[in-house]
Amino acid sequence: MCCSTLYELPTAMGTLPAGTLLWATSAGTESTGISLRIWRSGDAGVTWAFHSTISTSTAGLWEPEFDIDTLGRLVVYFSSEAYKASGYNQAIVQAFSTDGAKTWTAPQIIVGVSDGVRRPGMPVVTKTPAGWYLMTYEICNWDYGCVVHVRPSRDGYQWGPPDWLGYRPTSTNGNVFAHAPTITWVNDGTANGRVLLMGQRLYDQAGRVVAGNGGTLFSSPTGGEFDPWTEINAPVQIPETATRLNWCNNYSTPLVTTLDGRGIISIALGDNGVNNACRAYYGVNWLAAGRCVILGAISEKYNEKYASLGLCQSGELATADTVGRYNRFERGSIYWHPNTHAHEVHGLIHAKWAQKGYERSLV
User: Fold this and answer.
1) Which of the residues 25, 97, 115, 327 could staple to 74 if both were Cys, CB 3.0 to 4.6 A apart?
2) Any idea what DSSP says for residue 242?
3) What is d(CA 97, CA 78) in angstroms, rounded to the nearest whole number?
4) Global pTM?
5) pLDDT confidence of 128, banded at 50, 70, 90?
6) Within a 13 Å sphere around the CA of 208, how many CA atoms are in the beta-carbon half?
């Protein structure tokens, strides 16, 4: 078995009540046949029963992902190697069920190019309150590694021409993700929330591993093609260097919000410097705007400067002289000191102030 997913039905479908868990995985081998199979649980995962088969092939079927489209159908997106005879090295396909995942339509290609080379795969989908479905995936055998792409849909089943391979999210630092992406929408306390994106590797435009690899998320107001993606710290830090890249580290890292909506939970894989000893680690990043611990005069200043500062990145911290206090944000900091009160610092001024020693300097 390989490449499984776990999904909780948000509403009743067919004979299945809301809250039913669906676990789907690839089973079999290419020599004997591979099928995408579903098991169900009605008791929060204590017991399981076989439910249905989505698709069967003598080629690879991988990485299922469930959602519900605007027509109320259960949709499964997955990677398929079943179209090689038509020139697709691999494609992302979708199928639909209207009877609670018992029967499925024939798969249809939604991302793919018939050049016999490029391999779209590993789809993950999130929905935003604005009504957009955002799908992220890798495209291997193109440029360097398997660069991460995103494409939008208004309804969860119409994704545009399959040979349009989507757009490539690029951070304001000029970096991109590659391999095994994850995307999710979070309620950060703002009107529209935030879209967070993560991949296994962080590259520059030349395909070189950069600082922050293994410990970075991209954050965007909507995840749109022309929206900025800001780099922020990931909840779990599993750094790698260009000379020691491991198959385990940060592979397909899930991101989910906490029950109270205050933060994002990450469960990341890492070998902890020991090859072939892959373990899971978790952490929480309290990144929600207005939900970090922001107090007093700093809070008042933040209400004025939110648009330029972005999301909070820390609780209240002591300044270098231990007298003042500050909070870090995506694009700067707000400091409070009895001599200067609350003020915003960002950009080159912030960098120069840090170089001079912060409050201990003469600046």
Assistant:
1) 97
2) T
3) 14
4) 0.79
5) very high
6) 4
Q: Are 63 and 78 in contact (CB under 8 A)?
A: yes
Listed residue (296, 349, 291) closest to 325, CA to CA: 296
SS3 322: coil
Task: Count CA atoms within 13 Å of residue 292 on its CB side.
Answer: 23
Tokens of 310: 């972005």
Comparing 251 with 363, the larger pLDDT belongs to 251
Q: Rounded CA gap, 196 and 126, in Å?
A: 10
For 304, which DSSP code? H
**Mean per-residue pLDDT for 31-52?**
95
Q: Please compute the mean of the pLDDT values over residues 345-356 and round it to a whole number.
A: 76
What is the rounded average pLDDT of the residues 178-204? 88
Distance of alpha carbon 42 from the chain centroid: 28
Q: Which residues contact 309 (CB under 8 A, 6 or more apart)?
A: 302, 329, 330, 331, 332, 334, 344, 346
Can you tell me the distance from the alpha carbon of 103 to that of 80, in angstroms, rounded to the nearest whole number? 19
The 10s digit of each residue's pLDDT in 85-96 is: 999 999 999 999
The Cα–Cα gap between 261 and 133 comes to 20
User: Count of residues for the chain?
Assistant: 363
The pLDDT value given to residue 172? 94
Distance separating alpha carbons of residues 218 and 237, to the nearest angstrom: 14
| Rounded alpha-carbon distances, angstroms, from residue 38 to 22, 52, 104, 127, 260 | 6, 5, 12, 23, 30
The neighbour count for residue 3, using CB atoms within 10 Å, is 18
Residue 361 CA: distances (Å) to CA of 235, 304, 321, 333:
32, 27, 10, 17
